[in-house]
Amino acid sequence: MTVKKAIEVIELAMQHYQTIVNGITELVSKWEDKDDMPSRMAKMLVIEAEQSIMVLKLILKQIKPDCKHLKKYRDRDSKGNWYCTNCNLDL
Ligand SMILES: [Zn+2]
How far is ligand 1, taken at its centre, from the CA of residue 55, in Å? Predict the structure, then answer.
């Protein structure tokens, strides 16, 4: 199930970028001058990370479709988890 692993990696990367966004935003909020060079650079990093999250969301949407196949295509893997034999999506 390589799709499942790819989805996990993408979700981890999204969490990573969100941690960056949250961390920098909190840090900048404590700075006195919010429009000096370091503050502007920090805001640029936040924008970059937010754009990366948006791109990853678009990729995720492409590879993680909703399974609308019939129940007859459902089966269990070696660990007993249900998945669709038609689109390989975990259910
Ligand atoms: Zn399916």
Answer: 24
Contact by Cβ (8 Å): 85, 1: no
C-alpha of residue 89 to centroid of ligand 1, in Å: 6
How far apart, in whole angstroms, are the C-alpha atoms of residue 91 and residue 89?
6
Domains of the chain, residue spans: 3-65
Contact 86, 69 (CB under 8 A): yes
* Each residue's pLDDT tens digit, 5-35: 898 999 999 999 999 999 999 999 998 888 8
Enter the pTM of the model.
0.69
CA of 86 to the centre of ligand 1 (A): 5
DSSP 84: E
Ligand 1 centre to CA of 52 (Å) is 28
Torsion (CA) 39, 43, 45, 49 in degrees, nearest 10 = 150
